[in-house]
Structure formats: structure tokens, C-alpha cells
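Our consortium's second objective concerns turning raw sequence data into structural hypotheses that experimental partners can test. To show how far this objective has progressed, the report includes one record in full. It was chosen at random from the queue rather than selected for favorable results. The single chain below, 90 residues long, was entered without modification.
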Amino acid sequence: MIKNPFSAIILKEENKDNKGSAEFQVVSLTNRIRRLTSHLELHKKDYLSQRGLRKILGKRQRLLAYLSKKNRVRYKELIGRLDIRETKTR
């Protein structure tokens, strides 16, 4: 049984030693976001989890901004693979 199917996708395509890459971090944060979102649907008044979710969202947003500046092709590919929206630029 695979605990994180998205991280398994990244591990198969890239080196197994590359867990510090921005793509792997975004994938693992996305997994945590989805898990916390489903938790908060059941427990609406869990304010500590809401705060943790906001912190994780901010961290993922910063990593995606970094990735879009460094390599736009890899950024677009990751956004498409994870099925998340692209952030709006000003």
C-alpha cells in the first residue's frame, strides 16, 4: 500500500535521492493540504488545523513562486500533474 501516491509518482520519475527538490516538496505539501482539507470537512471548528493548513499553503505558494522563476517549464508540468491552479500575478 502506497501512503502518498503523488510522491510515488515523483520518485519513479526522478532520482530517489532527490527528496529535497522543489518539486518533491510541493508534491508532499499538496498531499498534506489534501489530507488536512478532508479532515477539516469533518471537524469544522478545529482552528489549530486551520492555522496549520494556512501555513502549509503559504509554504507551497512560496515554493511554487521560486520554481516559476527558476524553471517555467518544470513549473507548468508540476501544476498540470498535481491539478492545482496557477497563482495570479499582479
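The partners drew two points from this record. The helical segments are 5-13, 22-42, 47-70, 72-82. The domain at 20-80 is CATH 1.10.287.10 (Helix Hairpins). Both points have been shared with the crystallography group to help prioritize constructs.
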